[in-house]
Amino acid sequence: MTGNALIWIIFIGFAILSWLISHQLQVRFKRYSKIPTANGMTGRDVVEKMLRDNGVQGVKIGSVEGQLTDHYNPTDKTINLSHEVYYGANVAAAAVAAHECGHALQHAQAYSMLKLRSSLVPVVSFASRWVQWILLAGILFVQTFPQVLLAGICLFAMITLFSFITLPVEIDASHRALAWLRNSGITTYESQEKAQDALKWAAYTYVIAALGSLATLLYYIMIYMGRRD
């Protein structure tokens, strides 16, 4: 089997695995959305209480379009929840809302990995905007101007590094969320397992994205290293 054939098999494998994980996450979110929270709190209620319990102020809570589009924006200190999470009074909504609130706690407590991740955002934004064109040009002119491909590899390496730095940030936010949900009584013994399972599958999406980015980076490095073959 040639190196290129192996790379394509790996890419296809990552694509299938990514789809399966995304599908399982959606299945679990839909399943756990049918399990109400013990006290009837919505996702917004969960965020408000979690912020209050941890003494964090100045964080805004908003609602955004889409499914599982929930995120925390450290620039304007806003927790953005999808409609299903914002208004949902169920275990899935509580888990996702608490996870995003976990990022707000990280920000308030100057969590080192979040600070590192935030410091890379301008570089990664620039890289994401131009990397595909630089890599394309680099591949087309790899024999005459290999420096172009090398520049693209460096930019893509920053994106890959960013994806791996994201992993501990997401895992820590989930740990904060699950500990608070349990200690505050938002989840029961049975529903706590459901919340943990939902966040576990959400974490898998970041893992597969990071590994897929690494595989792609290695592919471009192989092209650069083999340009004289």
Strand-helix topology:
Blueprint: H1 3-32, H2 43-53, E1 60-64, E2 71-73, E3 78-82, H3 83-87, H4 91-108, H5 112-140, H6 146-184, H7 189-225
Parallel strand pairs: 1-3
Antiparallel strand pairs: 2-3
Helix pairs in contact: 1-7, 2-4, 4-6, 4-7, 5-6, 6-7
The major sheet is characterized as: 3 strands, mixed
Number of distinct helices: 7
What is the mean predicted local confidence, pLDDT?
92
Instruction: Describe the global form.
Output: elongated
Q: So what's the oligomer here?
A: single chain
Q: Which structural category do the helix and sheet elements fall into?
A: mainly alpha
Order of helices and strands: HHEEEHHHHH
| Distance between the amino and carboxyl termini | 17 Å
The largest beta-sheet arranges its strands as 1-3-2
| Estimated share of beta-strand residues | 5-15%
Structure in words:
This protein has 229 residues and is mainly α. The protein has helices spanning 3-32, 43-53, 83-87, 91-108, 112-140, 146-184, 189-225, and strands spanning 60-64, 71-73, 78-82. A hairpin with a 4-residue loop joins strand 2 (71-73) and strand 3 (78-82). Helix 4 crosses helix 7 (189-225). The longest helix is centred in the C-terminal third of the chain and has 39 residues, at 146-184. It is elongated. The two termini are 17 Å apart.
